[in-house]
Amino acid sequence: MTEDFYCEEVLSGRTSVEIVKETDDVLAYHHTRPHWPVHIVVIPKRHVPSLVDFGEEDISVLGSLLAVVREVAADVMAEHGGARVLTNLGEYQDSKHLHFHVNHGAPRES
């Protein structure tokens, strides 16, 4: 996997995605290889390495990002009765670009 799949592939347009919600600062889309039956990824459009690696200039995007995560999670919950919101850090974070997974259902077998 690339170091930053989201900048290099999604935000560049090289990998097309099915958009769920988009604002000036945030993109939410259906995962290209879903791990759960409902699997939406929410990313800032500006590169931020992870939740613990915010620089001072990045803090402003956090409110916009969480507003979209909240809206997407509420929609998933309303439609399916529940939702999970997850972000990974360190060795668990495959792509070094902050992203949240909003999902529902049992994990799909690999």
Write the layout of secondary structure elements.
Layout: H1 5-11, E1 18-22, E2 26-30, E3 38-44, H2 59-80, E4 84-86, E5 100-104
Antiparallel strand pairs: 1-2, 2-3, 3-5, 4-5
Description of the structure:
- The chain contains two helices and five strands, in the order αβββαββ.
- It has a five-stranded antiparallel sheet with strand order 1-2-3-5-4, with helices on one face.
- Helices cover 26% and strands 23% of the residues.
- It has helices at residues 5-11, 59-80; strands spanning 18-22, 26-30, 38-44, 84-86, 100-104.
- It has one domain: HIT-like (HIT family, subunit A).
- It is globular, with a radius of gyration of 13 Å.
Tell me the fraction of residues in β-strands, as a range.
15-25%
Strand order of the largest sheet: 1-2-3-5-4
Might you state the CATH topology name? HIT family, subunit A
Rounded Rg: 13 Å
Tags for this entry?
single chain; 110 residues; HIT family, subunit A; 5-stranded antiparallel beta sheet
